[in-house]
Amino acid sequence: MKHEEAVEIQLSKYVTVKNRSMVLDGYQKAQKIAKELDIKSYVGKSILLTVPSSLTSATPSFLRGILSPLIRAQGSEKTCIFVSSTNENMCLSLSDFWEEEDIREAKREKEKARKEGLGKWSKPMPFLIPDIGTVIRLKEDWKFRLHTESRNNALLKALGLPAGGYNYETRTYNHDIHDVIIKAGSILKVDRIYIRKGVGEYSSLTFNIQKGKGSQAVCNSNEKTFKSKGARFWAKLSDVNNMIVEVDTATLTDN
Questions:
Q1: Alpha helices in the chain (DSSP H)
Q2: Per-residue pLDDT of the chain (255 residues; tens, 9 = 90+)
Q3: Nearest-angstrom CA–CA distance, 6 and 80
Q4: Measured between alpha carbons, how far is 97 from 103 in angstroms, rounded to an integer?
Q5: Which helix (H) or strand (E) holds 219?
């Protein structure tokens, strides 16, 4: 498409000396010009946008603000855009205009989806922050990720899994993660809570599985009933929040 075949839009008719501050005020002002131009009416046509040399503050981003309503309205039919200016200081490169606008639109959609996801509330539920020593009983099987780490060695050993920590024979650390299920009816006692601002990836609770025939843990085909001895372990907060429990009210702190 040649320039002479395009519909010319003279920006000087819309941005004069009196309202040159519109250029400096950015995207919102550019949109006002777009409305005045009725820019959407140029869908499917070729445009020659003439920018006066006096507008030294005009930039590609400002021009995008003027043309973006056209981009969103055009659908699959692309509009050819030519830019003409005698201002040598003006760097106008719109070769990637469509791609950049697509990226901007994708970002807008992503941000819209994020905002729509906020404010979706759960059903009413009791809010409990346990204290050290709080005792709970699982009402449903609880699946969590057991990290191979020395503080979990008691439970790892009970389930017949390799211990965590440094292996002097292989000179390596074992960082395996196992899917473990602690069965409904198992009784756990809160032993440690670690939650710190800015280090959420380390948020965890440490429990002691209380001994008793009702306390059971399963990993793969290995099953352990803690009849005579319990086991200490920790789990990430994100897994702990999936527990469905009953609380021994006698162990709740009453200040």
A1: 21-24, 27-37, 60-73, 97-117, 153-158, 237-240
A2: 444 566 777 776 666 544 444 444 556 667 777 777 777 777 767 777 776 665 544 555 667 677 777 666 655 445 566 666 554 444 344 444 444 555 566 677 777 777 776 666 777 877 888 999 999 999 999 999 999 998 999 999 999 998 887 666 766 677 789 999 999 999 999 999 999 988 888 899 999 999 988 899 999 888 899 988 999 999 999 999 999 999 998 998 776
A3: 8
A4: 10
A5: strand 216-219
Environment class of 163 (CB within 10 Å of its CB; exposed 0-12, middle 13-18, buried 19+):
middle
Residue 53 C-alpha from the chain's centroid:
44
What's this model's pTM, rounded to 2 decimal places? 0.52
Q: Which residue has the tokens 């309202």?
A: 19
Distance CA(7)–CA(39), nearest Å, equals 12
- Cα torsion 34, 96, 7, 23: sign: positive
Distance (Å) of CA 246 to CA 139, 251, 252 = 7, 12, 12
Spatial contact of 175 and 199, defined as CB atoms under 8 Å apart: no
H-type helices in 25-129, by residue range? 27-37, 60-73, 97-117
